[in-house]
Design goal:
The chain is mainly α. The chain is about 80% helix and about 0% strand. It is built from 21 helices and two strands. The radius of gyration is 22 Å and the shape is globular. Pfam families: GntP_permease.
Length: about 450
């Protein structure tokens, strides 16, 4: 019954938001209350999971969101994104979505997905008109989505990739050897297919953008345009103005790589923590704008950022509450009982079964990493007796775990608010792109099984 009640709760939240225009926070809380009571958590248990899930997500991403949004506001005041977009438009032009998808999937997997979307969203919004005046934002949103998650599940040291490889007892080097090309090809092919989809009237600006967003001459009006501009700081070299982003990325990546290599120490662990790294980036950006605008000017810039931060934190936290309720309902255990791996199954059946287990678990639970880890836990005890290389089963789990990221994920709500998308718009971009990515990567995993069998 947990599966039925979870489906009802998720569907109800989507219908309330899209059809009846109920605010996402209210809709998600209604879904939380229904699911908690319907699955026997009781009044006290339901409240405990709602508040606990909210608090757990805030502990994980609250500061990341706050610091990232404030960095974005400060960089915007210096014209950093505008100048970066001008350069990218000259260098890659309409190929920017491919560049973004490829970079996110191969260079930045060591960076937490929450950090990636917080830092990439402002550039996507700013560059959208240069890519395509009508479809630039949704195309970049889809490219961001698949780039982030293809790297997350396929490319070491992405968190899900490391977890899957560890549970399946696959050496990280072996996993990277297979996963890196699959992740890159998946990101690029999905970005291409998504663009074809957009060209068929798929995107409706009037319903797929946040209704509070104003469109002016083909571009999104950002409230930070109404705050002072740091003219003196804007004359700094672009690479200097990008330091608030580059320094955190280098620190986090270095910390993650050293940790995987068992070469970390207390200093690198501290500086490589995402919260500390982003705070250092915020201090750098604050110093640049403060020297240009003074205390009052930088205060107005940060004020606009704080306004945006509050909205994102609330809806993200409630998304975490729904995830906690689903986890507490016993969903994972119920789904695990429904699946039983057949040790004597043919290779293709084993791969499809691993893919399906991961896809169903992710769709139900709302977390790519939890879905992947749970699927690996189900399959790992018998993987040694299957007639397929363990790395192939691990890749199949990674592929399925991307499928259909939707409203029961806190990332969905971060993505939606940071890119000024409506819930429908996020379903059309994030959910569709990750679903396409899961399907695109599946035949690549089958090819990998042939390579593994031949070596």
């Amino acid at each position: 019954m947990e599966i039925l009640h979870s489906a009802i709760a998720i569907l109800a939240a989507i219908v309330l938001i899209i059809t009846f225009k109920v605010d996402p926070v209210i809709s998600l809380l209604i879904a939380c209350v229904y699911l908690g009571l319907a699955t026997g958590l009781g009044a006290d248990g339901t409240v405990a999971e709602i508040t606990g899930g909210f608090g757990e997500i805030m502990a994980e991403v609250g500061l990341l969101i706050g610091f990232g949004v404030l960095i974005g506001a400060l960089l915007h005041s210096m014209g950093t994104f505008r100048d970066l977009v001008d350069i990218l438009a000259r260098r890659v032009g309409r190929r920017l979505p491919y560049a973004m998808a490829g970079t996110l999937s191969t260079i930045f997997p060591s960076i937490y997905v929450d950090v990636q979307v917080v830092l990439a969203a402002p550039m996507a919004k700013e560059s959208a008109p240069a890519v395509d005046r009508r479809h630039g934002l949704p195309w970049l949103a889809g490219a961001m989505a698949i780039g982030i998650f293809a790297g997350y599940v396929f490319v070491v040291p992405g968190l899900a990739a490391v977890a899957i490889a560890g549970l399946m007892d696959v050496p990280l080097g072996t996993y990277l050897l297979y996963g890196l090309p699959i992740g890159l090809v998946t990101a690029l092919v999905t970005t291409f297919l998504f663009r074809l989809l957009l060209g068929r009237g798929y995107w409706k600006e009037e319903t797929d953008l946040d209704p509070d967003v104003v469109i002016e001459e083909g571009r999104v009006h950002d409230e930070t345009e109404d705050v002072p501009k740091a003219e003196a700081a804007s004359r700094l070299p672009l690479w200097v103005r990008l330091l608030p982003i580059l320094v955190p990325l280098v620190l986090i990546a270095t910390g993650a790589i050293l940790d995987v290599a068992d070469a970390s120490n207390a200093v690198f662990a501290f500086l490589g923590d995402a919260n500390i790294a982003l705070f250092l980036g915020l201090l750098i950006a604050f110093g640049m704008v403060r020297s240009s605008l003074g205390a009052d000017g930088v205060g107005k810039v940060l004020g606009a950022g704080f306004h945006t931060t509050g909205e994102i934190l609330l809806v993200t936290g409630v998304g975490g509450s729904l995830g906690a309720i689903i986890a507490a309902s016993g969903m994972a255990e119920t789904l695990e009982d429904l699946f039983s791996a057949d040790e004597n199954a043919p290779v293709i059946i084993s791969i499809l079964l691993a893919w399906c287990i991961a896809a169903v678990l992710h769709f139900a639970i709302g977390s790519v990493s939890v879905g992947a880890i749970t699927a690996a836990g189900i399959i790992s005890p018998i993987v040694g007796s299957l007639s397929v290389d363990p790395v192939v089963i691990a890749l199949a789990i990674a592929s399925g775990a991307m499928f259909a990221l939707h409203v029961n994920s806190n990332f969905f709500w971060m993505f939606s608010t940071l890119l000024d998308l409506s819930t429908k718009g996020s379903l059309k971009t994030l959910t569709m792109a990750t679903s396409l990515g899961a399907l695109v990567s599946l035949p690549l995993v089958l090819v990998a099984s042939l390579v593994a069998a031949a070596t």
